[in-house]
Design brief:
The chain folds into two domains: 94 residues, Ribosomal Protein L25, Chain P (Beta Barrel); 82 residues, Beta Complex (RNA Polymerase Alpha Subunit, Chain A, domain 2). Helices cover 16% and strands 37% of the residues. It is built from five helices and 14 strands. The chain has a six-stranded mixed barrel. The chain has a four-stranded mixed sheet with strand order 11-8-10-13, with no helix packed on it. It starts with a strand and ends with a helix. Belongs to the bacterial ribosomal protein bL25 family. CTC subfamily. This is one of the proteins that binds to the 5S RNA in the ribosome where it forms part of the central protuberance. Part of the 50S ribosomal subunit; part of the 5S rRNA/L5/L18/L25 subcomplex. Contacts the 5S rRNA. Binds to the 5S rRNA independently of L5 and L18. Pfam families: Ribosomal_L25p, Ribosomal_TL5_C.
Length: 228
């Protein structure tokens, strides 16, 4: 089970357009929503120190379990949405979904190919990837941050990895279709040299015969028409 990370937060009273002032002070606005057991939470407005929170959040994935400590009240949660500045890439807002540690949840976990395929090295082949996420169901504390798939299994052109080939903990149920492709191997496409022009036009040129013009000036007119 991955180590649970705790992030210190404070309750936030500022909302709406006024959060711009918080950002200028180096504060990151966020919210917690979701359900703990049978209790539906009212959205909790919170805030973090932007610098400290960014160092932690940038290491997390969508399936990382974190504990948000809001002035002593602790909420197990996962990240649901991150908003970033489109120019500088700094965090602007984070949505956390509170989860119950006793109830299973369904979520998508990213797939990561690790290692190098022997087919790439020995056969100059190319590894083609399929789906990039796996839908799973488990308790929040059993969520993997990512699912690593060993690319060294791809040893020849016939090698293929399907979802059914993935082995996870018995605490995790895979919901994705077992026949979905994760990775396979294919030959590198080799471009052939274009053949020398042959045919009627070449014969006419050899005989110094000027070809008949079907539509004089058609080329330039056609180009202008196609560009409109």
């Amino acid at each position: 089970m991955p180590e649970t990370i705790t992030i210190e937060a404070q309750k936030r009273t500022v909302r709406g357009k006024q959060v711009r002032a918080l950002r200028r002070q180096g504060i990151l606005p966020a919210v917690i929503y979701g359900r703990i057991g049978k209790e539906q939470l009212e959205p909790i407005l919170i805030q973090f120190d932007l610098h400290d929170a960014s160092l932690i959040i940038k290491k997390l994935t969508g399936s990382s379990l974190v504990t948000i400590d809001v002035e002593g009240e602790k909420y197990p949660a996962i990240i649901r949405e991150i908003q970033k500045d489109i120019i500088y890439g700094t965090l602007r807002h984070v949505d956390f979904m509170a989860v119950s540690l006793t109830e299973k949840l369904q979520t998508a976990v990213s797939i990561e190919l690790v290692g190098q395929s022997p087919a790439e090295i020995n056969l100059a082949a190319v590894v083609v990837t399929g789906i990039s996420e796996l839908e799973i169901e488990c308790l929040p504390q059993d969520l993997p941050e990512r699912i690593e798939v060993d690319a060294t299994q791809l040893v020849d052109i016939d090698s293929v990895i399907h979802v059914k080939d993935i082995k996870l903990s018995d605490k995790i149920t895979i919901l994705t279709d077992p026949e979905e492709l994760i990775a396979s191997v294919t030959h590198v496409a080799i471009e052939e040299e274009p053949a020398e022009e042959e045919g009627e036009l070449a014969d006419l040129l050899d005989k110094d015969v000027e070809p008949e013009v079907i539509e004089k000036g058609r080329g330039e007119d056609a180009l202008e028409s196609e560009e409109e």
